[in-house]
Amino acid sequence: MDSLSQIEVEDVTKVYRFKGTEFPIIKNVSFKVKKRDFTCIVGPSGCGKSTLLKMMAGLEKPTYGAIRFEGERIKGPHPKISMVFQSFALFPWRTVLQNVELGLEGKHLSKTDRLRIARELLEMVGLKGYEDSYPKALSGGMKQRVGIARALAVDPEVVLMDEAFSALDEYTSAALREDILDIWRDTGKTFILVTHNLREAVEMAEDVIVLSSKPTTVRRIVKIALKRPRHSDDPDFVRIHKDLYRLLREELETTMVRYRLRRIKELREVEDIEKMEDEN
Amino acid sequence: MVKVKKEEDKAILSEFLSFDGKDLFIWILPLSFLFSIWEAVVTIGIMPSDLCPPPSKVFETLLFRLGSPEFIAAILRSFLNISFGILLALVAATPLAILAGLRIGFDSSVTPLLMLVGGLPDLAILPLAILWFGPETSAILMATLCAFFPIFFTVRTGVREIAPDFFQVLMIFHPGKFNELREVILPAITPHLITGLRLSLDFVWEVVLAVEIVVRVAGIGSFINISAEAGAIHDAFAGIMAIGFLSIALDRLLFGFLENRVRKWQ
Ligand SMILES: Nc1ncnc2c1ncn2[C@@H]1O[C@H](COP(=O)(O)OP(=O)(O)OP(=O)(O)O)[C@@H](O)[C@H]1O
Ligand SMILES: [Mg+2]
Which residue of B has its CA nearest to A115? Predict the structure, then answer.
């Protein structure tokens, strides 16, 4: 085991079986995440980013390969690993405060401590005053922030975030990103963020893992060595963002072109058959 | 926390018993309109009053009968048949429905069978039930049978509609088999359970009355039947009206109460 890495994804392949046929979603993905690192995972839509994150959370099993946390193979959810869900997944029958308290209820904490922690986190995500609201009364962005508060409330060592800022407006997401970076710097937690926003990845990450699709593999791991705080008008920022953008665009185009070529070929074949039938 | 919940409950309950302004109007207006027309129709003589007494007479009889122990006993009897029937159905149907909703294997082996039994007209089984269990127990068991299917199918739907992510959230934040039931399944099925109970109450009233009338088991059904046969039409009407009021009261008290709790978050 590499003593520096906290999470190791080793040659992971995920296959879904549907009506007896196997569909590989993720193929031979390997990477390592160091303790206290901030890693972003980017890739085309539907390429399996959420699936990858859920495997790291122990919610789904890799079909082949292994994921290790501090040297031990992850077999199920780990108390030190927490997650922000892309679908928010707040319990509608719980108030905002009770949703944030969820992860604290199984711990040996007094009711007052539990409330204090939950309230503090809600204040941090800017939802002071909404403690007793139910999720139905919140906008998508507010729900996302409750999800972030819930994930941080359990004081995890690793925070997995699935598109955690995507449902937010530009201003709120910028503010919340700064808060998360502060927490990251102050607490030394490890963050792994799935995003489709490349600017976000360049702003936050030490490492950006670029996935390619069909089948999904690691296309490249890009180190971002910019000084913090990072500004999106810094020429180096702009250059790195452009490089990443090009990398992902190539990826999208190859899949799109491949797809179109296949379609054209299929259509040609149909035409050929029709022609032959006409001639006969 | 528990205390806060109790106070919430009280607030909901009082909100509901003190039918305020608007609510009162919605209830009373069409009802009194209907009664006035009925009264007029009988008074003018369009309907002979020995076949259809005017509502004033029916109310009078009802008030009078409410003072008689036999009448109260008959109402109580029917009420108990219904309550026991529904309670038994609830206890039997809920766990099965939860299992069927969670496990596809269990669902596909059990649900078709239940659909087959549920598709039968409930009263078809009545003669056999009487033969096996006697008339008194049959009333309760027929009620159970009727209440079973609405509860089973609504709860099963409720469990199926739970987002898989909810279980994953629980695995991360509050793992434990018992927590799945307490924190996700039970709250998620509550709205469906209300619908199921409400449907089953309708069905159960009908079948319990039918059993009482056909088999002459003591209850409000047989009271109506005996009164009508004896020509005491006003008594029969009083019995029917008692059922009406009892149904409204049950619906408002039981389901209105549950519904208000769910409406907070739904
Ligand atoms: N339980 C499942 N059974 C079969 N296929 C699945 C299942 N879950 C996900 N998939 C498929 O796996 C692929 C990857 O899904 P996933 O949600 O991980 O992608 P994603 O990269 O997170 O997408 P997005 O960018 O939309 O968030 C999709 O094509 C999806 O259809
Ligand atoms: Mg996703």
Answer: B1
